[in-house]
Write a structure and sequence with these properties.
Helix content: 25-40%
Strand order of the largest sheet: 3-2-1-4-5-6-7
Length: 360
């Protein structure tokens, strides 16, 4: 490849795109293969984002919306622009730059696939199963199986773990991470005294970014804040934007319709899938087709890598069993992770940078 270098822009419409982008950015620096700028969108969390920018030492610009971002991209003329989701001005950008879609998770929502309705120059995908499905859905577009770069830091032993004592927790206890998504979620199905029922464990609660930032999820926020007052609980702050330290620290994961289930299982640790969700009235009964439409067929396959619980009472028994026998589903987890996440060799970011250099 010689001394070829590339310029990259990372479009950070949502803060939770960062854990996917950062391993690629660090690989770019490691290979001395070019420069990168992160494009952040103004929101109520500007102060938190500024703190993250400083701690990660990022080159950055601020924009107020997608129109302004588009203008910046057209002026900047970078080799590659990364997107975590759809972007309405791709046709204009493709006159000047090439584009990448790098999804922020490997979850079971149908949007994982449909976000390719507007094709980027290339989409990096996790594993042969998803690559094959996307190729069938969009035969004229470009999909490249690289693996799941978000997990590279954990696999390579570079990820930060929490100091439990610093969080006010007990390092002699096993640690559970509860990582619910915002919708459909299990949060409202958990009782107010949830931490009491699990007082022999540390509980790290890592809700979806929307649960702690969007007005419509205020009820979830009230419950989360209430739980955070318990001695055995640490509730993620807005600047705990990455699930990686939570996954690196915990012995077991409890989640629902979240990508976290697949990510955590890929590390060969026990996962419990809460199949008791709070559904809006317009997703229940005769409208249940809406729920099915929102969730992809991959949702059903969770039962292969996670222990399904259909009630909170069942959850209490299952946690104890899985903490005591963490290897029960180990073989399944390994096989299924290969299917849903692809190669877990810590080199996904490396493959991405190699591809960008070879195709600039």
């Amino acid at each position: 490849m010689g001394n070829k270098t590339i310029s990259i822009l990372f479009d950070v419409q949502q803060l939770y795109y960062l854990p996917q982008y950062l391993p690629v950015y660090h690989e770019l620096l490691k290979q001395d293969a070019g420069d990168a700028t992160f494009v952040f969108y103004h929101s109520i969390h500007d102060e938190t984002i500024n703190h993250i920018i400083k701690s990660e030492n990022l080159n950055y610009v601020w924009v107020k919306d997608k129109n302004e971002a588009n203008q910046y991209y057209k002026n900047k003329k970078a080799d590659w622009i990364f997107f975590g989701n759809t972007f309405p001005f791709l046709d204009e950008l493709h006159q000047i730059s090439k584009s990448v879609q790098l999804g922020h998770g490997v979850g079971p929502k149908a949007s994982y696939y449909t976000k390719s309705d507007t094709p980027t120059t290339v989409r990096f995908v996790e594993g042969p199963y998803r690559t094959s499905r996307l190729n069938k859905m969009y035969p004229n577009d470009s999909f490249v199986d690289v693996g799941f770069c978000k997990l590279d830091p954990i696999i390579n032993g570079n990820s930060k773990k929490f100091d439990l004592e610093n969080l006010g927790l007990d390092p002699s206890k096993k640690t559970i991470v509860y990582a619910p998504t915002f919708y459909p979620s299990s949060i409202e199905r958990f009782p107010k005294n949830f931490p009491e029922d699990f007082n022999e464990y540390n509980i790290l609660i890592k809700p979806h970014y929307f649960s702690i930032s969007k007005d419509k999820y205020k009820k979830q926020r009230d419950l989360l804040k209430y739980w955070s007052n318990y001695d055995n609980v640490y509730l993620a702050k807005v600047d705990d934007y990455s699930l990686i330290p939570f996954m690196a620290t915990a012995n077991l994961l409890i989640s629902d319709a979240s990508s976290a289930i697949i990510e955590f299982a890929s590390l060969d640790k026990p996962v419990i899938w809460c199949n008791f969700l709070k559904l809006r009235w317009n997703y229940r009964g005769i409208f249940s087709y809406r729920f099915k439409k929102r969730m992809d067929e991959d949702y059903k396959e969770y039962s292969k890598i996670a222990v399904k619980t259909d009630s909170y009472e069942e959850l209490k028994i299952t946690v104890k069993d899985q903490i005591t026998h963490p290897d029960k589903l180990s073989e399944n987890r390994k096989n299924y992770s290969e299917k849903m996440v692809g190669r877990l060799d810590g080199k996904a970011s490396n493959r991405i940078i190699d591809y960008l250099l070879n195709n600039s």
